[in-house]
Amino acid sequence: MAITSPDPKDSEIVQKLTILDNGFENVACMESEITLIDGNRGQIQYRGHPIQDLYRDNDYEDVLYLLMWGKLPTPAEKLDVRRKFAAAMVPTKAVVDTIAAFPRNSDTYPMCLAGLCAFMAGDKVISNNRHTHKPSFHNNLDQADAAIIRTIAYYATTLALIYCHKRKLTFTNPDPNGSLIGNLLLMMGKTNKETGVGPDPEIESCLEKLWICYADHEMTNSTAGILHAGSTLTDPSSCAIAALVCGFGPLHGGAIDLAYEALGKIKHPSHVPAYIEMVKSKKARLFGYGHRIYRTRDPRLSLIEDLIEKNREKCDANPLLRVAFAIDKHANEDEYFVSRKLKANADLLGCFLYSALGFETDMITAIITLSRIPGGLAHWRETLDKPIKIWRPRQIYTGDRTDDADTPRKQSLSSNEGPLKEKHGVQVREIGSGRNNSKVPLKVKAVLWAKSCFS
């Protein structure tokens, strides 16, 4: 802001420095204490805790609490948040009807947006936020925390309603003391196969660890979307919608679906060498490889591989997993990938665990976004005690420009022409009639407007 230069057309006008950085590769927009990613060393830390330690010692709910509130929870704090999630997970008839209005074969993405919007419409605090001059959440962390919890619960319930609607299953209300993941499974009908009571323990145990890998990833595109929307002082549910819009894009979370579809086209490990050659000649794209941040192996990948080994029998039932490992082997040996430091990321193998656990591909991206939204909202919460500043990036204009001195005087299309007439005791000139160019004074316009609106 202190670096300036004179305008090339007028030395009396001073221009401030503008930095052009397409894709914001080298521009930091926030200071944060939440997540550290060291792409050169392949490290991720949440609030100073290495992700490997959290994966070993904690579950997803612990990590969610850590990201959001800055410390690992006590058992009492954990139970309190669980109960608040569960209380907000009971859908209203309006929400159920919104999801039911979609054809069962609809794409999941617009159903997610519609369901979350239906929940928002019934939330008085969130709805009223747009009708108050005083910020509802800024410097009001108690209200913000309650709205964050409701937003996460709304989205989890939306996913369960979508899943049940598409498959003609009966929606089950949540367990008041159940975990976020456990209640998601319960509402979706993924219950204990032996007892039929409660969520499937094997799936719940796996997701409690897998979601740690996806809990937050620093300033991602979707997190930036949350903060961009949040800078307008909007509510956390609207911020979550901004994240979903970004997250389902094919270069972001949508890459999970595309990676799975590409592996489906390869079909067999024997076809991998030919496909690798197509990628190198830019005739095909390999989703799940390469990352702007990492110049070494994605540290989450070893954790996902550990989960695959623990669920080996289920994963082996998926023939595409062998294709994925064949790609990893070729890419780690091929000079094209090695020289460019293109390594596998978590998107490549994470989707196979979902398939192994019985989730169909139409729900995988949506479920993964649920694991990420709390982390994004933690970044939003972090801004609430900082000075308010709306995000408004600059641009470099490259189009044609006409200088004011060269602009011919043109008659305004809204020039005030016509004979004087009396309205509300004030003489005014009707627009569009006559040739007199005198204008109605601005104060007179204001008086007329006020009388027409409020008299």
Task: Describe the fold and architecture.
This protein has 455 residues and is mostly helical. It is built from 20 helices and seven strands. The protein has helices spanning 51-57, 60-69, 75-87, 93-100, 108-121, 124-128, 141-167, 180-188, 201-214, 221-230, 236-247, 255-266, 272-280, 299-310, 312-316, 320-333, 335-339, 346-356, 361-382, 442-454; strands at 4-7, 10-16, 35-38, 43-46, 49-50, 420-423, 426-429. Strands 3-4-5 form a three-stranded antiparallel beta sheet. Strand 4 and strand 5 form a beta hairpin. Helix 2 packs parallel to helix 9 (201-214), helix 2 (60-69) runs parallel beside helix 19 (361-382) and helix 12 packs across helix 18. The chain is globular. The model is unreliable at 409-417 and 431-437 (pLDDT under 50). This is Citrate synthase. Belongs to the citrate synthase family. The active site is at 291, 347. One of its GO terms (molecular function) is acyltransferase activity, acyl groups converted into alkyl on transfer. It comes from Apiosordaria backusii.
Provide a short characterization of the protein structure.
This protein is mostly helical. Helix content is 51%, strand content 6%. Strands 3-4-5 form a three-stranded antiparallel β-sheet.
